[in-house]
Amino acid sequence: MNQEIIERTVYLVSDSTGITAETFSNAVLSQFDDTIKFKQIHLPFIFSIEKAKEVVSRINQNALDTGNQPIVFSTLVNHEIMNTVRSANGIFLDIFGTFVSNIEQLIGHKSNNSIGRSHNVTNTEKYRNRIDAINFSLSHDDGQFVHQLNQADVILIGVSRCGKTPTSLYLAMQYAIKAANFPLTPDDFERNTLPSTIIPYKNKLFGLSIHPERLSEVRNERRPNSSYSTIEQCRYEVTESEKMMRRDGIPWLSTTTKSIEEIATTVLQEIGLNRRLA
Amino acid sequence: MNQEIIERTVYLVSDSTGITAETFSNAVLSQFDDTIKFKQIHLPFIFSIEKAKEVVSRINQNALDTGNQPIVFSTLVNHEIMNTVRSANGIFLDIFGTFVSNIEQLIGHKSNNSIGRSHNVTNTEKYRNRIDAINFSLSHDDGQFVHQLNQADVILIGVSRCGKTPTSLYLAMQYAIKAANFPLTPDDFERNTLPSTIIPYKNKLFGLSIHPERLSEVRNERRPNSSYSTIEQCRYEVTESEKMMRRDGIPWLSTTTKSIEEIATTVLQEIGLNRRLA
């Protein structure tokens, strides 16, 4: 028995980058199972009536071609532009509208209806902190630069390829967290002590670990058939690193089944860092 | 005349990372002006009734302490957990609910109500592409590794400190785009030609530029009072790089007033790259 596949086009229409529309759309559409294929089309920077009219043409053409009304997720704020896009032959979903009205009622204060404010703030201290954090995390990746570790908000530690680098960069990029990272290596396990460089910053350390099988897979993709990638080596390093973190009372988590976002969120929670951008 | 400042606590409650709730909340709240202070409190990983009850206590306590009902943005999916949190003394805004129902009606198909799917996909090809892209962009930052440039989806070029590195990392992190970047230096301007390494990949090049005054500010933060940071040097480099990009027909944009998100979105649009994660 063939299961019917339902296909629908989803337009993400925004007056700015469309990143909020995209995050929102991904989350809402992931609530549906694989028998429904959503084709997302991004239409950012729709900040004029002229552009809005082009959007209307595209939506109408799609409805004609597919025989189905497409879904339109809108984060448009300007009423004139929104009403133009709303006139197209699609199911128009105004992502902000309902919630902004709710909050206006609650606080008895009107919103600005200003365009694209959330990703348009380059000249603020927050934005500079974020760029600084990215530069910090880059230069303090993999223990390559050991000065200014006192400025780190967190220092991620763990064996090679357990997820330290993407997590550090994500923390910096999204939350302006100065996240350094430092590898735990076989040398450290032989000496049976944390790398001396990071011992003074023990209260900033957070450990990442990973199942040895998964680690071996990841390392094999990078260096196939090396002794570095064998399951024995991976088991040894993971066991030793977890032993070390437990002994030294360093909080840690396993990254095996976690996405960058899940690891980063957990790190933030565990070490109680405020989200600087919020 | 003093303008009254309105303060409100906003809880972001999610069964997963809360990143969607956060992006959404930042966008909606940025529609209000500075006379309203929203204090956002992140409560991720609320995946049990027990945790939901703790959330209720926190919200109720806040309502008591402040004398105002807090705003609760929820991306909870499980009905039992949602109804528990909804019972708290706050204004409960169900971010997904309305839209999921709309789409269910439209396509005649029920959603899964499954928890935290959008940031919980580590073992998929998409996720691996993303990690690969991050590693690629890191190793191809600032022209440091010139092999495998043929695998790049885009190569950003421009003078030192014009925004290439954060943009490359953002493209990789968010969209699994393999974004290399390569500096244009005074040497290139003297030779009056693009760096020979990147000439074979001309169709992948995208240029970033910046106002000389802003560039001088950024460089001065990094290397105060150096010849590298003088306004004269910055004017020279910016003029020459723009001349080179124009002459060689390379698309480019000015980053001066643009956030990382705005630059990345524009690059994606201009070079017509599909968003691999979408």
Keywords:
homodimer, 278 residues, alpha/beta, Rossmann fold, 4-stranded parallel β-sheet, 10 helices, 8 strands, 15% strand
Topology of this protein?
2 copies of one chain form a homodimer.
Chain A (H helix, E strand, L loop, with lengths): L5 E8 L5 H11 L6 E8 L5 H18 L4 E4 L4 H8 L4 E4 L2 H11 L17 H15 L14 E5 L5 H12 L3 E5 L2 H6 L13 E5 L2 H11 L8 H17 L4 E3 L5 H12 L7
Parallel strand pairs in A: 1-2, 1-3, 3-4, 5-6, 5-7, 7-8
Helix pairs in contact in A: 2-3, 5-6, 6-10, 8-9
Pfam families (chains A, B): Kinase-PPPase
Organism (chains A, B): Candidatus Kinetoplastidibacterium galati TCC219
Catalytic activity (chains A, B): [pyruvate, water dikinase] + ADP = [pyruvate, water dikinase]-phosphate + AMP + H(+); [pyruvate, water dikinase]-phosphate + phosphate + H(+) = [pyruvate, water dikinase] + diphosphate
Description:
Chains A, B: It catalyses: [pyruvate, water dikinase] + ADP = [pyruvate, water dikinase]-phosphate + AMP + H(+); [pyruvate, water dikinase]-phosphate + phosphate + H(+) = [pyruvate, water dikinase] + diphosphate. Chains A, B: GO terms for molecular function: ADP binding; ATP binding; phosphotransferase activity, phosphate group as acceptor; protein serine/threonine kinase activity. The structure is a homodimer of 278-residue chains. With 278 residues, chain A is an alpha/beta fold. Chain A folds into 2 domains: 6-107, Rossmann fold (3-Layer(aba) Sandwich); 125-271, Rossmann fold (3-Layer(aba) Sandwich). Chain A is 44% helix and 15% strand. Chain A has 10 helices and 8 strands. Chain A has helices spanning 19-29, 49-66, 79-86, 97-107, 125-139, 164-175, 186-191, 212-222, 231-247, 260-271, and strands at residues 6-13, 36-43, 71-74, 91-94, 154-158, 179-183, 205-209, 252-254. Chain A has a 4-stranded parallel β-sheet, sandwiched between helices. In chain A, strand 1, helix 1 and strand 2 form a beta-alpha-beta unit. In chain A, helix 6 (164-175) packs across helix 10. Chain A is elongated, with a radius of gyration of 24 Å. The mean pLDDT of chain A is 90. At the A-B interface, helix 1, strand 2, helix 4, helix 5 and helix 6 of A face helix 1, strand 2, helix 4, helix 5 and helix 6 of B.
